[in-house]
Amino acid sequence: MSDAVDELRKAVPDGRVLTDPDLMAAYRRDETPTVSPGQPRCVLLAGRTSDVAAALAWAQRHRVPVVPRGGGTSLAGGATATDGCLVLSTARLTAIRELDPANETVVAEAGVLTADVDRAAAAHGLMYAPDPSSLEISTIGGNLATNAGGLRCVKYGVTRDSVLGLEVVLPGGRVLRTGRRTVKGVTGYDLTGLFVGSEGTLGVITSATLRLRPRPARYPSTLAAGFPSFGAAARAVAAILAARLRPSLLELMDSVTLRAIEEWQNTGFGADVQALLIAQDDGEQPDLGVARMRDVCLREGASMAEVSGSEAESRQLLELRRLSYPALDRLGATLTEDVCVPRTRLPEMVARVEQAARRHGVLVATVAHAGDGNLHPLFVFDRGLPDVPPQVWAAADEIFRAALELGGTLTGEHGVGIIKRRWLGTELGPEAMAVHHAIKNALDPDGIMNPGKVL
Amino acid sequence: MSDAVDELRKAVPDGRVLTDPDLMAAYRRDETPTVSPGQPRCVLLAGRTSDVAAALAWAQRHRVPVVPRGGGTSLAGGATATDGCLVLSTARLTAIRELDPANETVVAEAGVLTADVDRAAAAHGLMYAPDPSSLEISTIGGNLATNAGGLRCVKYGVTRDSVLGLEVVLPGGRVLRTGRRTVKGVTGYDLTGLFVGSEGTLGVITSATLRLRPRPARYPSTLAAGFPSFGAAARAVAAILAARLRPSLLELMDSVTLRAIEEWQNTGFGADVQALLIAQDDGEQPDLGVARMRDVCLREGASMAEVSGSEAESRQLLELRRLSYPALDRLGATLTEDVCVPRTRLPEMVARVEQAARRHGVLVATVAHAGDGNLHPLFVFDRGLPDVPPQVWAAADEIFRAALELGGTLTGEHGVGIIKRRWLGTELGPEAMAVHHAIKNALDPDGIMNPGKVL
């Protein structure tokens, strides 16, 4: 077998193939604490599309499973190594091949950091809208593979909504180009959409033509509104959307999250703030938009509602949201969930999360991309435990089933990966599962692309 | 074989299967004048999803090709009957199963007219954004099958951008549900996107969950600007977009089109109007948006630039655009093309269209969804001819190749159907063609769904 690895070494530039277990350790796992990675046979640090092509040709010849990875920030185990696999890192494909401000497009290689795409766009008065919380450490390739979401989705949609075309290396090493550079086009099937969100199970995305948008003239205006209960805050969200206001961000944090931040940062929220809503408007009249949202919040029983007076103040309010995860991380090990429901069902879904937490005696904190109905219940448990406690899985199971019952989905933006695979059939049903398998078999007949993930 | 048709009759309610050639005549052809339809074996007027399922089970048992059709408004031959086929009309699946104003979704069956979806939404202060010119006679099912565009695409995207989920009957009769009711969701592959735009080659869409949007508070403000040349108008389009203005409609008509309308309706444009740009803004400050576009047009050499003072006047200006097709139809038979280029290449593409017309001595009129770079060159030729003259095909061929050369696509919104099939491989390349065939074979192994279209 080491002969096989030598063959791969010869097919790519020197130093790109790792086999030393110590060096490979950093490439075995992603940000999912609840899965145990396998031991890869080797790691390829691809530097060009042709390296990826050579690797996939090699993998097919030797029937080696391939686990593609970008920044390794998956929360669903999507980039977790399996025993004997090739870990194929696209993190070193870092060229921005082209930026066309007039057509508002950028061609970025898979390893470019999400935030770097946005920064490159900003130099031309443009923005790359998708903004997963991991944007400073996640790659465009990983975002594309998982169809990542983010905070601005409520106005600008998810990653798939910003992709015009892809360069994908198929199993066996052929290089496929999908889509187009135009904003419209209906020549053939939507292969671009098919590869986006396929979590590395159909091929490896090496580059993408992304759509940019005009950057708002100034930093969005920001509102922070406190509510006496999560339910009241969720009702305010529904009222904001029913008033046809169009926030560019609408985030909700529950009391467990607020207390965790409070204990750490001494933010000084009173007992009348059991839930915090943060909203932004980046439209033509941002102050007006935010003032209207403030009025709605006060009408819906907000105990406080402050509009930022400056960019600095706005950023500070938003920072509260960003502190959620590190603050909760201080309490113990966490399992982050990602259900999404029709946004009017948010209050019900929150109640169901609270029920599940109580019933199974587990600590759950919830932050939500409330405008999308996308909740992230975070289960907190003892860091010393060897495994996720069974009551956490029981509560998670209950939450998934509740989301489906309310017309929702298992995963709003993190992907299926390993950790939601066992619930996939429940959401999709047998016909959709059969179509998934038919497509997977058609494009990856040997089943070597990211095996054990999604399907 | 009539035994087989009897079997189909028994599987669906009475009167749903037509075999009389006179009755079938209306279901043989679509709006593409340049293709000759075959003679169907029978026509099914499906009234329920279960009729479609029964028909596809029957078609598979008897290996009968199936040609699905909605309103029959295809301009690419996509709904043209082939000899011995079952024409499967979904036009009678006309229920709006559900409208959820709070979640801004509607579940509409395939046969609902596009305009009726929008009217149903309007009752709740919402709109269905995709607006192909045929919206009063085209069905949602046909729009989905072709991923139809329209005038508002420049701001709101194409049909695919407004679809959350589908009900699809697969070859053999299984009923598949794709997607979700939530605005976000990444459980599994994007089957919704795959079926949208697949032109009936993978299955029959019977119902869709569509996304609605807030309806602008009032009818959009409208600008009409005349230019001394098409090139000057195209440059104004580029300047409007470069100024990061966000029109909700940006349509361009060339001098051939204007003269055809002029001769018919006596619109009174002077010799200094050789191209007309119509723009709308439906944003938060529509009058401001339109005034800014007017300024840009004047700076770019507009010979006239009028802003509407009222909804009636706005509608009248837009009516000019709608008159293009009937006005050109008065001049002879027409072949409507549909190329799309990166929008900054619009002036070049227009020049290439004019060159092709001159070189081959054919009359070409061009109207364009200019903000998307989507041009519709219309070839006009003698209605008495038995067939499209070879010089028209030669000019069309040159135009397709020019579009691809400029980084564009064969079809921005009409689809491949029959008439662009021969150019498909040129745009897609061998790898993408192979992936198309792999998917087609995986989902329709007998090749009975709309054979001879797209692939």
Largest sheet entry of chain A: 7 strands, antiparallel
Q: Which structural class matches the secondary elements of chain A?
A: alpha+beta
Q: Which CATH top level class of the domain at 96-214 in chain A fits? A: Alpha Beta
Low-confidence stretches of chain A: none
CATH architecture annotation of the domain at 96-214 in chain A: 2-Layer Sandwich
Helical content of chain A (DSSP H or I, runs of 4+): 25-40%
- Oligomeric state of this protein: homodimer
Beta-strand percentage of chain A?
15-25%
Number of helices of chain A: 14
- CATH topology label of the domain at 96-214 in chain A: Uridine Diphospho-n-acetylenolpyruvylglucosamine Reductase, domain 3
Largest interface: A-B, 82 and 82 residues
Strand order of the largest sheet of chain A: 15-12-14-13-17-18-16
Number of strands of chain A: 18
Shape of chain A: globular
Radius of gyration of chain A: 22 Å
Overall pLDDT of chain A = 95
State the end-to-end distance of chain A: 28 Å
